[in-house]
Amino acid sequence: MNHEAPLLTIGFLTFNLSTVLMLVITAIIVFLIAFFATRNLKLKPTGMQNFMEWVMDFVKGIIQSNMDWKTGGRFHILGITLIMFIAVANLLGLPFSGIVINHELWWKSPTADPTVTLTLAAMVMVLATYYGIKMRGAKHYFGTFFQPMSFMFPLKIVEEFANTLTLGLRLYGNIYAGEILLGLIAGIAGSGFLGFLGGFIPGMAWIGFSIFIGFIQAFIFTMLTMVYLSHKVSEDH
C-alpha cells in the first residue's frame, strides 16, 4: 500500500494534484448543494431548502453560544461555508477510497492532507487577527498580548501558534487515521473469500463511524473557529 502522490512542480512550487483535484470537487459539491437549496425559495421550506435552513440555524446556534448575534452575525456565512466545506471534504474519500492509477493515489479526502487542514487553520487565525484589529482597534488588540501581566507576552505568542497547529492537526489526524484503517480493511476484504467475509462487516461499521467522525470534526472546527473569533472581537474578552 505504498502509493505515491501525483506531484507537479512549477518553479519552486510543488503541487499535489490529488489534493488539488479533491479540493476542486469539494468546492463544486458545496456550490451545487447551496445552488439547488436556494434556487426556488418558498415560505414553507421543503427538501434541500429545509436542509439549508437547518444548517443556517445550526451555525447560528454555534455563533450565539460564543458571542452576541450583533457581533457574531457577520461570521454567519463564514461558519456555514466552513462546516459544509469541511463536512464534504471529510466524507469525500469514503465512497471510492484508495483509487490508484499507476501507483499514484488520486482519490482521498482533501482533509487527510495536513497542508489543507493547516492552511484552513492559518486562514482562521488570520481572519481572527484581522477582525480583532478592525473591530477593537490595533491598540486594544495588541494590548491583550500583555494582559494580565506583561511577562505573559511570550506565552500569548506561543498560544497563537499552538491554536493554529492544534486546530489543523486535530482535523488532519482524525480523517487521515480513518482513511488508513479503511484502506487496511479494504485490503483484507480484497484478499479472497475469507478475507471478504472477515472484512466486510468491520468495513461497513467503520464507514458508518467515519461518517459520524466526519460530521463531528466539521462541527468542532467550526465551533473552535467561532471561539477564536469571539476571543478577538467580543467586548468581554
TrEMBL record:
Residues that span the membrane, as ranges: 12-38, 75-96, 116-133, 180-201, 207-229
**Gene Ontology cellular component list:** plasma membrane; proton-transporting ATP synthase complex
Pfam families assigned: ATP-synt_A (PF00119)
Record carries keyword Hydrolase? yes
Q: Which UniProt keywords apply?
A: ATP synthesis, Cell membrane, CF(0), Hydrogen ion transport, Hydrolase, Ion transport, Membrane, Transmembrane, Transmembrane helix, Transport
Major localisation: membrane
Where is this protein found? Cell membrane; Membrane
CDD domains from the UniProt entry: ATP-synt_Fo_a_6
Alphabetized InterPro entries for the sequence: ATP_syn_F0_a_bact/chloroplast (IPR045082), ATP_synth_F0_asu (IPR000568), ATP_synth_F0_asu_AS (IPR023011), F0_ATP_A_sf (IPR035908)
Q: Tell me a GO biological process for this protein.
A: proton motive force-driven plasma membrane ATP synthesis
Matching Gene3D superfamilies: ATP synthase, F0 complex, subunit A
Q: Which domain of life is it from?
A: Bacteria
- Per the record's keyword annotation, is Transmembrane helix included, yes or no? yes
GO molecular function per UniProt: hydrolase activity; proton-transporting ATP synthase activity, rotational mechanism
Cited PANTHER family: ATP SYNTHASE SUBUNIT A, CHLOROPLASTIC (PTHR42823)
State the similarity comment: Belongs to the ATPase A chain family.
Job of this protein: Key component of the proton channel; it plays a direct role in the translocation of protons across the membrane.
Instruction: Name the chain's protein.
Output: ATP synthase subunit a
Q: Which gene encodes it?
A: atpB
